[in-house]
Write a structure and sequence with these properties.
Shape: globular
Structural class: mainly beta
Largest sheet: 7 strands, mixed
Strand content: over 45%
Oligomer: single chain
Radius of gyration: 13 Å
Length: 127
């Protein structure tokens, strides 16, 4: 059974940084793309960033491009989301997700491309 556990969320002032981690277990981590999504109160879950299975392809939402960086450590079965220059509008619950197809070269942005999700971690940015 696949399990994804996020950590690293918290409260920070605008301009600050946080690093989210997503520890995965249950299937061969290095074969699958990893994605990050977020959901603010009253809003739909939206794509943030993704990295393909080999780490050769990265993709970011326009709203976070240049501020957020995603990476992965296949030896530790962990994906990361480094968030810099945080803004109040980044406040949301952040979820990691694992791609549905092994060896996908795409860093997918659609929720349907992911079949396992973490429980989420809260990020709050104050002005």
């Amino acid at each position: 059974q696949v399990q994804l556990v996020e950590s690293g969320g918290g409260s920070v002032q605008a301009g600050g940084s946080l690093r989210l981690s997503c520890a995965a277990s249950g299937r061969t981590f290095r074969l699958y793309a990893m994605g990050w999504f977020r959901q603010a109160p009253g809003k739909e879950r939206e794509f943030v960033a993704a990295i393909n299975w080999s780490g050769s392809n990265l993709y970011y939402a326009d709203s976070v491009k240049g501020r957020f960086t995603t990476s992965r450590d296949n030896a530790k079965n962990t994906a990361f989301l480094q968030m810099n220059s945080l803004k109040p509008e980044d406040t949301a619950v952040y979820f990691c997700a694992q791609g549905a197809k092994p060896f996908s070269m795409n860093a997918d942005s659609r929720k349907d491309d992911y079949d396992y999700w973490g429980q989420g971690t809260q990020v709050t940015v104050s002005s």
